[in-house]
């Protein structure tokens, strides 16, 4: 680890490895006008992406590989586990100083958060993508990739956990969310803001995450071949117990309910869950996209046996519950994990 900081290493460019997974950043069409409805087939490979950013060789020694080539909406748990294992393998190489992952934006925040909790290294891991395909006018992919590489090569990026770099922003994977279906600045941290920014090749940090991540995390997926099954249910006015009943009877390990306001679960749903003799774990998150889910008078956690999501969105609460269930099946311990991370 110290190799990067030794005096003689400052005479060398940092070695940044790129792992490409596909996504819009790698999409290309015949028409530069086509910015929607493009194909996820025949995506650009990692080396082709690098060739689109001439001059980056002045900032880093780059190696690259393709691990997948798919739309991020097709990512599943097998892909997540394979990617996490490969990231840990790459970062264990003492010649590698940082890592960049290119990824589709549909599920980028989920992959980023999963890696935030499972990557066992203090080296920089930066995930980026694009909202426009590579063939589009003013495609944002090359600029995002340049910024991500410069960030991964920065001394200041160490110990920051997995980050997302989009539209010049540096965002913690713990808090980042996609907030628009089409805007270039779609990725934001609604509650806590950005860690920093990249302007030109200048990487500036102003804040750092304090919750456990990386080597501080208790989750280890190196030997896992599958994850516990956790489903998400959205609530609404006049919500019945039907979906919850179907999910419970399917034999899932856990459920995240995107509740109302501060995680309130509608009456028929919560009474059905309370009456169950054998319950899958149930996390109360909120369908509101920011804010904290605290104790709620409509669904007291001690009475109903539920778990507060804290400030995690439903999709991130799902991932955290999956990982929590790999280390414990104790309700109080899982509640503690949601408070800890």
TrEMBL record:
The keyword Membrane does not apply. It catalyses: L-asparagine + H2O = L-aspartate + NH4(+). It comes from the Bacteria. InterPro entries: AsnASE_II, Asp/glu_Ase-like_sf, Asparaginase/glutaminase-like, Asparaginase/glutaminase_AS1, Asparaginase/glutaminase_AS2, Asparaginase_C, L-asparaginase_C, L-asparaginase_N. Residues 15-210 form the L-asparaginase N-terminal domain. Pfam families: Asparaginase, Asparaginase_C. The active site is at residues 24, 105. Its EC number is 3.5.1.1. Keywords: Hydrolase. PANTHER family: 60 KDA LYSOPHOSPHOLIPASE, L-ASPARAGINASE. NCBIfam families: asnASE_II. Belongs to the asparaginase 1 family. This is asparaginase. It comes from Laedolimicola intestinihominis.
């Amino acid at each position: 680890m110290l190799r990067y900081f030794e005096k003689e290493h400052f005479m060398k460019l940092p070695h940044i490895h790129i792992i490409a997974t596909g996504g819009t950043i790698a999409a290309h069409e015949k028409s530069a006008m086509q910015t929607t409805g493009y194909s996820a087939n025949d995506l650009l490979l990692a080396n082709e992406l690098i060739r689109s950013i001439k001059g980056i060789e002045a900032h880093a020694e780059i190696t690259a590989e393709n691990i997948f080539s798919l739309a991020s909406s097709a990512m599943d748990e097998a892909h997540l586990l394979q990617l996490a294992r490969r990231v840990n393998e790459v970062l264990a190489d003492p010649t590698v100083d940082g890592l960049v992952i290119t990824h589709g934006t549909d599920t980028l925040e989920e992959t980023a958060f999963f890696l935030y909790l499972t990557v066992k290294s203090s080296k920089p891991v930066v995930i980026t993508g694009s909202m426009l395909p590579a063939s589009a006018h003013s495609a944002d992919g090359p600029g995002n990739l340049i910024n991500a590489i410069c960030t991964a090569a920065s001394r200041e990026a160490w110990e920051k956990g997995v980050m997302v770099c989009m539209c010049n922003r540096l965002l913690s994977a713990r808090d980042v969310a996609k907030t628009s279906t089409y805007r270039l600045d779609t990725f934001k941290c609604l509650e806590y803001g950005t860690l920093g920014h990249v302007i030109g090749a200048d990487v500036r940090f102003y804040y750092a995450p304090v919750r456990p991540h990386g080597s501080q995390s208790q989750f280890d997926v190196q030997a896992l071949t599958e994850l516990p099954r956790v489903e998400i249910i959205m609530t609404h006015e006049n919500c019945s117990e039907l979906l919850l009943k179907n999910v419970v009877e399917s034999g899932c390990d856990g459920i995240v309910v995107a509740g109302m306001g501060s995680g309130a679960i509608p009456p028929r749903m919560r009474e059905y869950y309370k009456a169950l003799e054998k319950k899958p774990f149930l996390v109360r998150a909120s369908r509101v996209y920011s804010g904290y889910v605290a104790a709620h008078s409509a669904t007291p956690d001690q009475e109903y046996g539920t778990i507060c999501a804290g400030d995690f969105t439903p999709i991130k609460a799902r991932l955290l519950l999956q990982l929590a269930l790999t280390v414990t099946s104790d309700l109080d311990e899982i509640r503690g994990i949601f408070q800890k991370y």
